[in-house]
Automatic annotation (TrEMBL):
The keyword Nucleotide-binding applies. Belongs to the acyl-CoA oxidase family. GO terms for cellular component: peroxisome. FAD binds at T145, G184. Its main location: other. Pathway: Lipid metabolism; peroxisomal fatty acid beta-oxidation. This is Acyl-coenzyme A oxidase. It comes from Pinctada imbricata.
């Protein structure tokens, strides 16, 4: 353990902040009462001896990591029930504190399997399955992706063929590429899964549908006949999880195992048409809607670590013989870290909007109103892709900004990165998601041309493109938002014009689309960026907090917007919307904002309110005693348990002896 109180530099940082970080914490977690409850639940978990005694993941091999993750998450699952915690966000606080760096081997059971039963199963199916799920007799996952197809789910090859005589479906993965591959926790942990398969009845393929499949015996845990399954091996991250593969050889399941809330097959094999399209994609939409907040949290942790460390780390004397500067005082370091910090807040705000929108829209869907599904799909796909791209890039910036120590697992950042980056791939590969957004935007653009009403969040398309920016020396939020709207509008028009021109000269619409997918993704990205900026400004303006806290928060918000203009400058100036003078105002504003944020940087990360026990970072400690912590971490490496390792005698000694013998003068003759 490190000793010595709070590092003097870090203490000074907290004293010089111009606002009270607790106010921002209260805003982030939706009120002081919720903050109090969060801390209470986190402390319960942190003090629990089962979690406290668990070994640090970094020194364990894969099997040990899996076992530790399983033990911790199962204990957390049980304690959550004992403590009567029912709110999803409260369960999250408890679980995060219980197992901060262990990905849950029952994560898919909780995040996709149970929610899918709740949303897609009939009342009878729910009565049968949910109690078994809650007692963990049934542990399930979501088995959709196959070896040959992940993105193109209409192309999945697993079949579910209905046999009206036996009143059963026959599940089969008829070739190598059809085997299920990747589903989380499928390999070793779960005994059930929800299988996505092509439904064939009365000789007709009705496309992909969901089926409940028991994969293992509920007592012995042995795989059931006709099912071969296992772990897919180590990965870049999620080391402690058993993503799995599964081969099905004509496995029979009862007709009642098809999820039949919206889609039905009658006993005689008649297919009943559902009330709407793509309802069985809703489980993906749920997780996509949650990812923006999740990835924003990952980045906020990386920012805490990198910014606290940069306040403690001193490197290079500024004037000869003078004191070495805190690296956070270098403008270049600020330019790395403050945009990352602003991005984390921007994504937390976007995630807040997204999840509320998901709840509102799914409540309408539950009532049979499917009208807002396209908006929900576009926004959840777009924000998922945009936020994971932006945040993973920023996490890597945080890591590198910690110099050499950022490369060590002692910093905590490499683990954050490897667990965050698959967010760009799972729940829909990001480019593919952006193309779904582009598809929606093109539809909206066509509707606009036909004079139809547009949903509120694409109203910006109605504004004339024949304008110039209102940006003045004092860079105003209104002008920044308008610049983002202009860019988004212009890019969708440019893509639409290019497609239309190709169609006019004889290409098919599909061909024209495929020849323009790059500009289409630019347009989709610009839309998402605009949405995040606008939402961030709106949330800061509406936030109930004192003037100083709001000013500190607003500086971050402005930085997010200003930095985005500079990073994508070409797209803002291509049509002359911003002139040279205005670009200079924005560049100056960026530097001014870095200086304005500097005294508040530590308080702004303190506001995220992560206890050390969750961060588990030698560099991100609240007390800033990083060097003692790094030394302690090194001392605890298992390689240091013995002064001289057996491998020295096994390998080094014999080779030394051989080389010595070879190099004897006599031996060379
Ligand atoms: C609990 C705590 C622990 C948590 C731990 C968790 C850690 C995480 C663990 C990791 C867990 C990872 C878990 C995993 O990874 S689970 C596996 C995730 N897999 C995917 O996400 C696959 C991605 N692919 C797709 O979603 C589809 O194939 C896409 C969408 C690409 C195309 O699809 P399709 O080929 O069918 O469609 P189309 O392009 O012809 O377009 C046709 C129309 O359909 C509309 N459309 C499309 N989609 C939707 C939709 N959703 N709602 C409403 N509408 C939709 C579309 O707008 C268009 O409309 P229109 O233009 O005609 O009007
Ligand atoms: C950690 C992790 C956990 C996962 N958990 C689960 C799970 O629980 N359940 C489950 O079912 N699956 C799971 N998956 C699988 C995941 O959902 C898929 O990997 C993901 O949907 C991407 O599909 P893919 O692998 O087929 O990528 P591909 O589609 O093969 O992507 C390869 C490249 O092709 C490009 N591409 C593909 N199609 C197009 C197109 N139409 N237009 C332009 N470019 C295109 C992509 O942009 C990408 O660059 C998991 C994956 C990971 C990494």
């Amino acid at each position: 353990m490190a000793t010595g109180g709070v590092n003097a530099d870090l203490a000074k940082e907290r004293e010089r902040a111009t606002f009270d970080s607790e106010q921002l914490t209260n805003f982030l977690y939706r009120g002081p009462e919720k903050v109090r409850r969060k801390r209470y639940l986190q402390n319960l978990a942190i003090q629990d001896p089962v979690f406290k005694k668990a070994p640090l993941w970094a020194f364990l091999n894969r099997e040990q990591q899996y076992a530790t993750a399983l033990k911790k998450h199962l204990h957390a699952y049980r304690r959550i029930q004992e403590l009567g915690i029912t709110e999803p966000v409260e369960k999250f606080y408890y679980r995060e504190a219980a197992a901060p760096h262990e990905n849950s081997p029952i994560g898919l059971h909780e995040s996709m399997f149970i929610p899918t039963i709740e949303k897609q199963a009939t009342e009878e199916q729910k009565r049968k399955w949910l109690p078994l799920c809650h007692s963990l007799k049934m542990i399930g996952t979501y088995a959709q992706t196959e070896l040959g197809h992940g993105t193109f789910i209409r192309g999945l090859e697993t079949t579910a063929t209905y046999d009206p005589v036996a009143k059963e479906f026959i599940l089969s993965t008829p070739k190598l590429t059809a085997m299920k591959y990747w589903p989380g926790n499928l390999g070793k942990t779960t005994n059930h899964c929800l299988v996505m398969a092509q439904l064939i009845t009365k000789g007709k393929n009705h496309g992909i549908h969901m089926f409940m499949l028991q994969t293992r015996d509920m007592e012995t845990h042995q795989p059931l006949p006709g099912i071969e399954l296992g772990d897919i091996g180590p990965k870049f991250g999620f080391f402690d999880n058993d993503n799995g593969y599964m081969i099905l050889k004509d496995v029979r399941i009862p007709r009642e195992n098809m999820f039949m809330r919206y889609y039905k097959v009658l006993e005689d094999g008649t297919y009943v048409t559902p009330p709407g399209d793509r309802l069985n994609y809703l489980s993906m939409v749920l997780l996509r809607s949650a990812i923006t907040s999740m990835i924003g949290q990952h980045l906020s942790q990386a920012c805490i670590i990198a910014i606290r460390y940069s306040a403690v780390r001193r490197q290079t004397e500024i004037s000869p013989g003078g004191e070495e500067a805190q690296v956070l005082d270098y403008q270049t370091q600020q330019y790395k870290l403050f945009p990352a910090l602003a991005t984390s807040y921007a994504m937390l705000m976007a995630g807040r909007f997204m999840y509320d929108f998901y709840l509102k829209t799914t409540a309408q869907i539950e009532k049979g109103d499917l009208g807002t599904m396209p908006q929900l799909h576009a926004l959840s796909a777009g924000l998922k892709a945009f936020s994971t791209w932006e945040c993973t890039a920023a996490i890597e910036v945080c890591r590198m900004s910690c110099g050499g120590h950022g490369y060590s697992h002692a910093s905590g950042i490499p683990k954050i990165y490897v667990d965050a980056t698959p967010g760009c791939t799972y729940e829909g590969e990001n480019t593919v998601m952006m193309l779904q957004v582009a598809r929606f935007l093109m539809k909206m653009y066509t509707n606009l041309q036909k004079g139809q009403e547009l949903p509120s969040f694409v109203q910006y398309m109605t504004k004339s493109l024949d304008t110039k920016s209102c940006m003045k020396e004092e860079v105003a939020p209104k002008c920044l938002v308008m610049a983002y709207e202009h860019r988004a509008s212009r890019l969708i028009k440019a893509a639409a014009d290019a497609i239309q021109a190709m169609v006019m000269s004889g290409s098919s619409p599909q061909e024209a689309w495929n020849k323009n997918t790059v500009p289409l993704t630019w347009a989709a990205l610009a839309f998402c960026h605009m949405f995040v900026v606008k939402n961030f400004f709106e949330m800061v303006e509406d936030a109930k907090m004192d003037g100083q806290t709001k000013a500190a928060f607003m500086a971050l918000c402005k930085l997010y917007a200003v930095n985005g203009v500079i990073t994508h400058l070409g797209e803002f100036i291509q049509d002359g919307y911003l002139n040279n003078q205005q670009v200079q105002y924005i560049q100056k504003s960026l530097l001014d904002l870095l200086a304005e944020i500097r005294p508040n940087a530590v308080a702004l990360v303190d506001a995220f309110d992560y206890p050390d026990a969750i961060l588990q970072s030698c560099l991100g400690r609240y007390d800033g005693q990083v060097y003692q912590a790094l030394y302690d971490f090194a001392k605890s490496s298992p390689l240091n348990e013995k002064e001289v390792l057996d491998s020295f005698f096994d390998y080094v000694k014999p080779v030394q002896q051989e080389l010595e013998a070879m190099n004897q003068p006599m031996a060379r003759l």
